[in-house]
Amino acid sequence: MTRNGAIPDQHAARPAVEAATMPPEPAPHTPDCAAKPPHLAKILVLVTEDWFALSHFQPLLRTLQTLAREIVVVTRSSGRMGELEALGCRTIDLAYNRSSMNPAREIATVRRLRAIIAVEQPDVVHMIAMKPIVLGGIAVLMSRVPHAVVHMTGLGFLAISETAKARAARRVALAIIRRVVARPQGWLLVENPEDLAFLRDGGVAPGQRASLLGGAGIDPQAFPAWPDPGNAPPVAAFVARMIRSKGVAVLMEAAEILGRRGVPLTVALYGDTDEGNPEAIPRADIEAWSDGVGRRYMGFTRDVAAVWRTSDIFVLPAISREGMPRALLEAAACGRAVVVSDVPGCRHFVAHGVNGLIVPPGDADALADALEGLARDPALRTRLGQAARARVLSGYTEAALARAVVTAYGAMTGPA
Q1: Which pLDDT band holds residue 30 (cuts at 50, 70, 90)?
Q2: If you average pLDDT over residues 343-372, what whole number do you get?
Q3: Which of 188, 227, 357, 358 could disulfide-link 370, Cβ–Cβ 3.0 to 4.6 Å?
Q4: How much of the chain is helix, strand and coil, in % rounded to 5?
Q5: In whole angstroms, how far apart are CA 317 and each of 238, 307, 325, 395?
Q6: Closest to 82 measured CA to CA, from 111, 59, 50, 106
Q7: pLDDT tens for residues 223-278?
Q8: pLDDT tens digits for 135-167?
Q9: pLDDT value of residue 99
């Protein structure tokens, strides 16, 4: 967006999303198989952290509970295992050590996973995110597991880092994923087509045993279309983990540019540091960015819907590829205008000028231009926000996720 608020044409060739007319809102928590008895005895879900399972995968866990009599979640406890158990899941505490590449530690984790699989005897091992996929994939290949699901929520180091150690790890990870999904008992779930293309270019050939999910699944009733909050000045909110790849530093630079221009806009940061992530930004750095006026650090919140009830604009200036950011879908469901960078995942959801704005990754000036245009044009914010919600309702809801997962499991495991 230019300084005068006009939409530039560098993205004009992007295909438009579905028409912005609002389709009927689907009822939440209604997977197609809800009326059918579970035909599997047990699904073992491997996911890095208990908080990650709770923040992103409750819709998935509810769907899996319609397919199996027991769901066992193997994850690291941060003190929230009881919340997973309250959902009807059994839990096993296991630290995946996301920031570690120590071979001895990784071998010990694989051995622990093999022992868990041997005791639990699951029908399916469902592996979410890179560490559980790589280490769990090795354990699956060394065990007698009827079925295995590789569930990619983004590619992380697999596609980002170019250090010698990361390149070596990428080759190993791709080899493991290739072997797991090459088996007739394997299945691949991805959240955007560019991740699927990347994996295929790396030799992963799932054939027809792959499904594209619309992210983690949004309940459009829990994230309703809020009215304009009437903020003066408007508030642009960033909701994500405080890690470098999310583009927090670029956003802070854009906020400084807007301050020098005298643009009436407040930038609010919501999120916590992710201490297990090598890209984590120290809390002291985050707090130093905040001036309490134009830039505010709000910390972690569990009530994300409340953020969008009181904010005008969603911003995610990621500098590297995403899967399908849940925070983006939540803000869009609430009818908020969105600004994202031109990276995989984000650009799969947003069509520039139709249901949001797209800026080049790492370009603080372009980000400032886009935010200024939205800050000065409430009608544009409303139009883009309405189209963003329509996009969510077109295939990014919990009901859409449930249909995709049930279909994938049905094809993988066969009839009851």
Answers
A1: very low
A2: 97
A3: 357
A4: 40, 20, 40
A5: 9, 18, 12, 24
A6: 50
A7: 999 999 999 999 999 998 888 889 999 999 999 999 999 999 999 999 877 766 77
A8: 999 999 999 999 999 999 987 655 666 677 767
A9: 62
Phi, psi angles (nearest 5°) of residue 381: -60, -45
Integer Cα distance of 405 and 170 in angstroms: 27
DSSP string, 120-164: H--SEEEEESHHHHHHHHHHHHTS--SEEEEE-S--GGGTS--SH
Residue 205 and residue 339: Cα distance in Å, rounded?
A: 34
Q: Give me 85's structure tokens.
A: 């158990």
Three-state SS at 285: helix
Cα distance between residue 1 and residue 5, in whole Å: 6
Strands 68-76, 90-93: pairing is parallel
Question: Is the pTM for the entire model greater than 0.90?
Answer: no
CA separation for the pair 103, 106 (Å, rounded): 5
pLDDT at residue 33 is higher than 80 = no
> Is 361:343 a contact under the CB 8 Å cutoff?
yes
Query: Residue type at 8?
Result: P
How buried is 82 (Cβ within 10 angstroms: 0-12 exposed, 13-18 middle, 19+ buried)?
A: exposed
pLDDT category at 283 given cuts 50, 70, 90 is: confident
Predicted local confidence at residue 281, as pLDDT: 82
125 Cβ contact partners less than 8 Å away, ≥ 6 residues apart: 43, 44, 46, 117, 136, 139, 140, 145, 147, 148, 149
DSSP state of 61: H
